[in-house]
From TrEMBL, chains A, B:
It comes from the Bacteria. This is CinA-like protein. Belongs to the CinA family. It holds the Pfam family MoCF_biosynth. InterPro entries: CinA, CinA-like_C, Competence-induced_CinA, MoaB/Mog-like_dom_sf, MoaB/Mog_dom. It comes from Vibrio hepatarius. Residues 5-172 form the MoaB/Mog domain.
């Protein structure tokens, strides 16, 4: 079996100043493609620890992905450590010096002297292109182990891995068979509630379920053999049926899914936000094509109350949704009311009628997470309306205190 | 120097299903207390990899914290692997069996047979109490290296580390002194430009600089001996002077700093956003106390243009800022105009006058990052105004195409 390791470098990763999302991302991508990591490690910027770890990994692995330490500053030592570990010289790669000079010339800036270092690589390396940054990656063999060195900046790292490193691995190790992974994104339930429903399911050999939980979603993942499409689709349908009420999207994020619905249904949308303070508008704008359907949005100052007391909050949000829709001339309007104690109201006005609900939190959230949950509830009302699903589902993490629906015909009659 | 490592275990950590927040937390806590980690590693649940890694760490470290794999299920193998690596037997610790029985009795549940395994520890171990869970930790010495085994559940792990492991380390290694770290957050420049300016600085023994780059900020970090306050403050002042133009906050995030300025200056703020789509409003609301000063906000539909062509964009944003301020009755209003080609306009209206600028991006950003940069430019105008600094600085990552300032007196005269 191919032994693959990843080494993350940098004091800021080692000392926990930043969470190593590059490593989590790579692990998952490699796992899905049949290149499961057998080990990950992290060291700081000290040259001796770097060299020591590179040596250790070279003896115990077939492939190592090294991340970070390719920048222009003096604490970026990955290339130097690789040369030491491989007992070769650092040499200038003139093609990269030229790229660097062109990069800065295009920005009408003189290349800082410190960047010159980024073209110095261990002798025998093969450059891995970085089309969006100044740090090139490189591949070099040390003690018969293939090392891929990559920059720490996530966008540069990810592009390099997807477009160059993974294809190179597949070329050199064509017999690694990956797993397929399907993801069902759920909202408003708990991991144990999901697993209680799914544990009964008998999965065929080679298939298994995984869960990944992060506010506000829980992902259910079905792992199984690559290319086994017919069986996979049937299994997904079974799983979907068992947890349908909570599934907000399949194999795409909820945000992408809602964007696709908006584009498909060609519905223009306006917003009026109190508790979500612009985040709902921002959420709806994330997809550039769906953003074309976004009409105006209001963020209501925190000193202005929508509704004087809890009884009024729902009615006020409800009325505001209708008024916003009329005023903006959009097909749909969504309103998030202020949080009072532990409850909040959300309302959606459409050409078929208006829905409004007051919900309360069943657990304690940070302010930031609270905003995220309210934004998601509001977006979920839109998703449910656009997919002709019941607009008021059962959420185990939220209690519905009140709900209200008035069809368009009744609104017209007023 | 004491060599301390951390080993995280579990397929879900290795394969990136969960981000290893325990490791980030421990690294930071240990760093601040003078027990800097020299290495972190992660392996899966396979017994052979676990034993191999424990052996390797035992030869290269003085202290190792192992996290995870102490649960009751068959894939929890840390205690067994420790016994194998240390060449001792697993033996029952009756005091933990009693605790387990009491734990379940208190919940009126019969103890599942699988939990009995949690009282089986390598011979010679010392139990580390877990007051809130069924997995006890333990300390055991393998090849003269002290291993502390801890449960993966974050709350149990953290309590154990804080109340038992860290105090034990301090008792056995009383001479470890931690480091202090000061952070200067910068915006609108590059890591190489910063290091070109700071590289000349001769730092005293024990002090060094680190950089951390993530859109839209670059942090400059000054590491140095603990408690050396007078010298640290002087160094910080030196560093600050060299890069003052780009520093947006010191030892707090820019968002916190701006929130504190808003509260201190008691300035109410309204917003009108086109390119930032609600994100500026959301940014300003993040601090609950500062949110009290947020007046209304508008998000302008993407079909509505502020300004018909590039020439008009700045004038339009400028006019809109004044109108929004008057209409909302706030002290300040901030406007972000639409992105055209690669340029965008931002304007701020205050009681002292109005500032507006059109900037263009010098590099390619994702849509999301572009919004983040524009939001930060707008917030930076607010910060500069509130701290009586020049509102138009030099940004190396952005080119200023136009700027405009009209003092309040001239606005009144119109």
């Amino acid at each position: 079996m191919l032994k693959i390791a990843m080494l993350s470098t940098g004091e800021e990763v080692l000392h926990g100043d930043i969470v190593d999302t590059n490593a989590a991302w790579l692990s998952q991508l490699f796992f899905e493609n049949g290149f499961s990591l057998s080990k990950r490690s992290t060291v700081g910027d000290e040259k001796s620890s770097l060299v020591e770890e590179l040596m250790m990994l070279s003896f115990n692995s077939d492939v190592v992905i090294v991340n970070g330490g390719l920048g222009p500053t003096t604490d970026d030592l990955s290339a130097e450590a690789a040369a030491l570990a491989g007992e070769v010289e650092l040499v200038e790669y003139p093609e990269w010096t030229e790229k660097l000079e062109a990069f800065f010339a295009a920005r009408s800036v003189k290349m800082p002297e410190s960047n010159r270092k980024q073209a110095m690589l261990p002798q025998g390396s093969v450059i891995i292109d970085n089309p969006i940054g100044t740090a090139c990656g490189f591949k070099v063999t040390i003690n018969q182990c293939d090392f891929y060195f990559t920059p720490g900046v996530p966008s540069e790292f990810k592009l390099m891995v997807e477009s160059q490193i993974l294809p190179d691995l597949k070329k050199h190790h064509p017999n690694q068979t990956g797993m397929d992974c399907s993801k069902l994104h759920t909202f408003g339930t708990s991991e144990s509630a999901l697993s209680d429903k799914l544990d009964k399911l008998e999965l065929p050999e080679g298939y298994f379920l995984g869960y990944r939980s992060y506010i506000p979603y829980i992902e259910v993942k079905l792992f199984g053999p690559k290319g086994d499409m017919e069986r996979r689709v049937k299994l997904l349908q079974l799983i979907f049926k068992l947890i349908e009420e909570h599934v907000v999207s399949v194999d795409e994020s909820m945000q992408q899914h809602v964007a696709h619905l908006v584009i498909e249904k060609k519905q223009s949308i306006s917003t009026a936000e109190q508790s979500t303070q612009g985040q709902l508008s921002s959420w709806l704008h994330a997809n550039e094509d769906a953003a074309e359907y976004c009409g105006h949005g209001w963020v209501l100052g925190s000193r202005l109350d929508v509704g004087q007391n809890e009884h009024d909050a729902l009615a006020a949000a409800f009325a505001l949704a209708g008024a916003t829709k009329d005023k903006c001339g959009t097909d749909i309007s969504i309103v998030t009311g202020r949080v009072k104690e532990k409850s909040f109201s959300v309302a959606i006005a459409t050409k078929e009628g208006e829905w409004g609900q007051t919900l309360s939190f069943n657990r304690t959230y940070s302010n930031q997470d609270r905003v995220l949950v309210i934004t998601t509830v509001a977006a979920d009302m839109l998703r449910r309306y656009l997919s002709s699903k019941p607009v008021f589902p059962h959420y185990s993490s939220l209690t519905r205190e009140k709900e209200m629906f008035v069809p368009q015909s009744a609104l017209m009659a007023k």
